[in-house]
Structures are given as C-alpha cells and as structure tokens.
Amino acid sequence: MDGGQALMRSLEHEGVEVVFGLPGGAILPAYDPLLDSPLRHILVRHEQGAGHMAEGYAHATGKPGVAMVTSGPGATNIVTPLCNAFMDSVPIVVITGQVPYPAIGTDAFQECDITGISAAITKHNFLVVDAGDIPQTIHDAFHIATTGRPGPVLVDIPKDIIDSKNPRSQMTWEDPQPHILPGYSPTIKGDPELVSQAVELIGKSRQPVIYSGGGILKSRAAEELLTFAELTQIPVVTTLMNRGGFPDDHPLCLGMPGMHGNYTAVTAMQEADLLIALGSRFDDRVTGKVSGFAPGAKIIHVDIDPAEIGKVRQADVGIQGDCRHVIAAFTQALKEEGEEPRRRDAWLNTVKRWQEKYPLVYDTSPDGPLKPQFVVEKLRDNTPDDTIVCAGVGQHQMWASQYWKFNYPYTWVNSGGLGTMGFAVPAAIGAKVGRPDRMVWAIDGDGCFQMTAQELVTATTERIPIKIAILNNAYLGMVRQWQEMFYEERYSEVYLSPDLPNYSQWAESMGCVAMRIDTPEEVEPAIIKANEVDDLPVVLDFRVDAQEKVFPMVPAGASNDEIVVSPLQQ
Amino acid sequence: MTTSPVLDTPPHHTLVVLVENKAGVLARVAGLFARRGFNIVSLAVAPTEDDRFSRLTIVVDADSAPLYQVVQQLDKLINVVEIRELHPSHSVERELLVATVRAGPELRGQVMDLVRIFEARVLNVGSDAMMVSLSGSPSRISDFARLLQDYGIMELQRTGKVALASLDQISQQEPDAE
C-alpha cells in the first residue's frame, strides 16, 4: 500500500463521506486513489470555498467537515476558513499537500510553511514525515478536532510520501492505535463540589438569566438546556452562535443579546443578579464595555475550555466541563433538593414589560421602499420550520438573526467570531450536502455575495440546490451604517452599485435560477417560486432600502446601558 | 538606579513546562506567548531524562497577564503535557552567566577577588579584559553582574534560569497526584 491509498483509507476509517477540495501539484497523488474510493469529492472553484463548505457541513450535521487542497496558494487560500473555524469552534480537518519532504525549506515551487502559518489559528496541526504515520495522524486529527472544545486541525502531507512512484510512499497499513496524546485529555464532567456551589447561587438568585452560547450546540445540549430552564423558570438569551439552541417561540426565550441584540435580552443581562453562562465566552460583541456589563450579576461560567473561564469576567463559580453533562448535573442536583418548577413572576413580568415596550420594529409604511427585514420575515413565513439558514457578515446577518424564528438546533449557520464576509454561499452548500433532506437558504448581502459567489458553479455542477436571498442595498451596509452614525455621514468606499454586477445574469451564467425583486408585493411569489425549484440553485436579488439600519445598537466601546433603540421607539 | 533586564528580574512567575519532544513545539509555545501578549523574561529548553519529552523553564512577566490565563492557554497546546508553577521558596533555581569584563593588568586582581568571593571561574584572560563565568541562583548571578558592572562589562550573556521543584515540594505533592 502507498501513502495516498492509506490517506483515502484513513478518511474512510474515520467515517468521512464527503471531501470538499481542489487538486494541485503537491496533493495530486492523493487524487488518484480518490478515484477508487467511495468518498464523495466536491470540486470547488476556490479553496476558501472548500473550507467554508466543510464548516457548513459540520455546523449542520455535527460531524467533522473535511477539505483537501494543494500546497502553497491552495493552503494559504484556506487560511481564512481555518481561522473562522478556530474562532467559532467548528470541527474541520483540512488536508494540505506539501512539497516533497527533502524539498522542504528550499523555497520549492508552491512551497509554503502552512503548519507555521496556521499554528495560531488551528487547534492543532501536523506535518506528516513518514507514510507509515498517515493512519495514526489522521485518526488523531479527527479526535482532536471533534473532542473537547472542537476546532480545526490541519494535516500537511509531503508529496513524496503519498506518491505511489516514490519508494518513500510505500508502507504497510496498520489500524491506528488508541490516541497517544499525553498532553490532551479534555475534562467532560463538572466538579460536583462546584456544581453544588452553582446550584446554591441559583437558589439564592432573584433575577437570573441564562446566557447560552455556541457551546450548547457543540455539546448537543439543547434538550438539557430546555429541561433546566423550564425547571428553574430562568429566562434564556441565545447568542449569535446559539440561535436555535433554545427555541425562539418558548416563553422563556429572550433571543439574541449583544451589539444588535434586542432590548430585552440586553437589558435583562444588565439587570440580572446572576448570569449562568453556558458555553459562552463573554465576547466583546455581547458584553459591550466589560466594566459596564451586567454590573450587579454574580457569574456561573460553564465551559469545556478552562481558559475561557475568567478570561474576560471573573466567575464566582467557574466549572470546566461539557455543557451537556454539567447542565444535566445542575438539573439533577436541583431535583434532589426537591426543586419544583418554580415561579419567578416578578422577574418574568419585568422582562415581559420590556418585551412589550421594545419589540423589534422597522418602518412598515405601505408606500416605502422594500425593507430587508420584511424580506427576512417573508422568507421565515414561507419556508419549512426546520429550514437551515446561512448568513454572511453584516447587516443582513443581524436582520436574519433578529427576524428569523429559530426553533430547532442546527438550523443557523453563520460566521460569528471572525466575521468572515462571503461565508454564506459556500457554508450553505456544505450544509445542504450534509442535510440534503432540509431546505437550505442563504441570506446574504451584496458585498458578501461578490466574495464567494463563484461557488454557485460548484452547486450547479454538483446538483446542490441551495437558495440565496441577496439583500441588495448596493452598499457595504454595516460599514455604511457606522459611517452614518459615527463618522458624520462621511461615506468612504462603501458604495457598490445595485446593478454592477447584474446579479440575475451572473447567477444564470452559473446555472442558477435567478429572479430580481423590487417591490414588497413581489416578495412572497418569488420565494414560493424559489421553493419549488429542487434541482438547481436559486438566487433572488432583493432590491432593498439602502438607508435601513440595524437596531437596536450598542455603539462600539459603550456600555450595554447605552443601547440605542430604533428611531421609531425613541 | 535604572532597571536593566539583565540585572534585575521584574515581578515574575516561573513555569516549568513538560512538552513533547517534537519538531516545532518551541515555536508553538513562543507563538502563543506572542499572540496572547504574554511577555517572556527568560526561556530555557532542553531534553529531559525521558527523550520523548523536553522541559522548558519559562519566566513570565507577572504584569503582562494573569498567571491562570497563561497556564490555561499553554495547556491548550496539544504538545504541552504538564505545567507547574514553581515558587522560589519551594524550588531550586540555577542560571549560568558568562561575561567579558574590561580589566587590564592593574584591575585584574580586583576582579579576581570578586571571582573568589562568588566562587566564579575565569575562562579566558586577555591583555585588557577577562572572561568569567558563574553558575548559581539568579539573584546571586544578578549580584555578581552588578559588581562586575563597575569595571565595565564588554559582553554579558545569561542563560535564563532552569528550575526544578525542591525535594520537600515533590514529596508533598505526590499524594495529590493520586
């Protein structure tokens, strides 16, 4: 057996079904045994697309996404997805070709020190030196990517050890051993003593809020969270990374907190006497100015990564462990103490009053321009409840998160920590590959769309029928909003044009069904028509109001107490 | 007196870090310190009694980051096996200094006095300079360097300290390890 065959067999051994990739010189020998392998390969048009597809696949399925690219520029093109996956704790394994081992360090053609470059933005990376090490390394890579705090792992493979014509590639297959990683053993169960301390704090609190983050989805703890919240009657905010981790329609759900969170979610945290942070990391987009964040709250912080506990805000009780286990331990401890579903009428009524006073609003006057929020609402109301929604980064992402009703886990795929424009199209492709049974919509901005739209060629070729709604306001809208609000309307390099490119023609040239929508009346028929297409990608070009801004908003660097609500509510 | 990183150690923590003896591990550790904004005062690294592992003695600037953050971030590196903070009173610390001192024939005797007092060694003698070395505790090294300064230090190199837990500390810790 040679190293290339071993690589394919290793991937199959890990249960991989799909690889997103693009061949090139150094990885060429791996693409030959691929022909004889049952692995499905999806040929992307740019390596960044392969990385985001792997992420979308992982988000939607919970299984690790796999991308395979060549050395040099292939590897550097996938740096952005690696960093994105690192920030959002997405389990992906990226295989990069490398120049032959003896050529490393000689500035060979398409040589690039990708293990050096990616060390800071991967959970771990490997440079494989011997063909015989391939099975164990791939096994370890998947183990590291998917356990503990998940994240991206890169495996760099020199060409000579996978090239069947090179004697260095000859090896004997041996099944990988149990992991020999002396420095890696994630703590899963929470310390019972700390669990008791947390339960005691919960018992004493009068105005608690559950601050649930992406760790809920990563640890598959949505059910445990629901049980815990219902037992304790504690309201739940769901961060951008945990939309869908707790149902939006649940009476205890307050929705998204943070810079563009709704008034109630932001204010409830500010007024809380206890924050129960579950798999969330006190990101600056949630806390605003840290010194002004939830000033009266004690903190229970549960995270599988102990480095997150106390990183931003000191925890009163910090518990290292997997959210699913620790939340279940909370519930069990409370039940053992005889906790009945309790009443928190005063606190919940206060919260309800905020919800009634400051709902999300936008101008719905009938003769006005098409509003982006209206488009999101119509999409929400005309698609199945379990539709998977993907977004890029910017205003459209915030409107999608605000106005969609996420009632199922793993239905929201977006770039949170890194804020990667262009994420939506490839991520939607990856999600649809992982969940072909689900409808997958990408809500995208015109700026984002232009960054990765070429992957629609991939979608058409591979018959991956995703749907894209471009909220086309002809601007880098979020930057425009900041320039309007904080730079005295001095607009600098944010105008894009609604017609250049011609989105419909562009989409059609990539094999998609395309429609342009200018008025509110056209919105619903277009969505219904798009939903009927099940064999091709669809692109809807919604011409929306360029003046529209995202509210509420906590200005950057300000305390959450300084939240700015919509002018309609001021 | 102005402070000098060679002569004075700022408030610091000493971490002894056991890592897998693999290519690139030092770069991972150094990169982590750089990107998290943790300052390294000194760093010494060498293989251990077990060739699968190397031991790093890292002196971390205590003002640059909370120790807990440094330890937890370090521990996330897959190749990092074990991290111990060593308290000066429960550890043995050693460091080596090599210095070339300006000392012509008329001052040689005075420098030799210092060498004798500190039980240092003379490595090399030139017509107007001497090269000396001293191994010992970091504070003793600092004292020696400070006194040499009066003669004019032409070149000076410290290794950065290496440290191990003192024996009473090891025997105290063992029951916990179970």
Write up what this structure looks like:
The complex is a heterodimer of chains A (570) and B (178). Chain A has helices spanning 3-13, 28-34, 47-61, 73-77, 79-87, 114-118, 134-146, 192-204, 214-218, 222-232, 263-271, 284-287, 323-336, 345-357, 372-381, 395-403, 424-434, 446-452, 455-461, 477-486, 503-509, 520-532; strands spanning 18-22, 40-43, 65-69, 92-98, 124-127, 152-158, 208-212, 236-238, 253-255, 274-278, 298-303, 317-320, 388-391, 412-413, 440-445, 467-472, 513-517, 538-543. Chain A is α/β, with parallel strands linked by helices and 570 residues long. In chain A, the strands form three sheets. A six-stranded parallel sheet of chain A has the order 2-1-3-4-6-5, with helices on both faces. A six-stranded parallel sheet of chain A has the order 9-8-7-10-11-12, with helices on both faces. In chain A, helix 7 links the parallel strand 5 and strand 6. Chain A is globular and about 75 Å long. Chain A starts with a helix and ends in a 27-residue tail after the last strand. With 178 residues, chain B is an alpha+beta fold. Chain B is built from five helices and nine strands. Chain B has helices at 25-36, 67-76, 105-118, 138-149, 167-177; strands at 12-20, 40-47, 53-61, 80-86, 91-102, 121-125, 129-136, 153-158, 162-165. Chain B starts with 11 loop residues before the first strand and ends with a helix. The interface between A and B is medium-sized, with 18 and 22 residues.
Shape of chain A: globular
Strand content of chain B: 35-45%
Quote the average pLDDT of chain B. 88
Query: What structural class do helix, strand and pairing data of chain B support?
Result: alpha+beta
CATH topology of the largest domain in chain B: Alpha-Beta Plaits
State the assembly state of the protein chains: heterodimer
Q: Total strand count of chain B, please?
A: 9
Measured as a percent range, the helix fraction of chain A is 25-40%
What's the total number of strands of chain A? 18
Main β-sheet of chain B, in a few words? 5 strands, antiparallel
Q: What portion of residues of chain A belong to β-strands? A: 15-25%
Largest contact between chains? A-B, 18 and 22 residues
What's the CATH C level of the largest domain in chain A?
A: Alpha Beta
What percentage of residues of chain B falls in helices of 4 or more residues? Answer: 25-40%
The first-level CATH class name of the largest domain in chain B:
Alpha Beta
C-alpha Rg of chain A, in Å? 24 Å
Our measurement of the CA-to-CA distance between the termini of chain A, rounded to an integer number of angstroms, reads 71 Å
How far apart the termini of chain B lie comes to 49 Å
Q: Name the strands of the widest sheet of chain A in spatial order.
A: 2-1-3-4-6-5
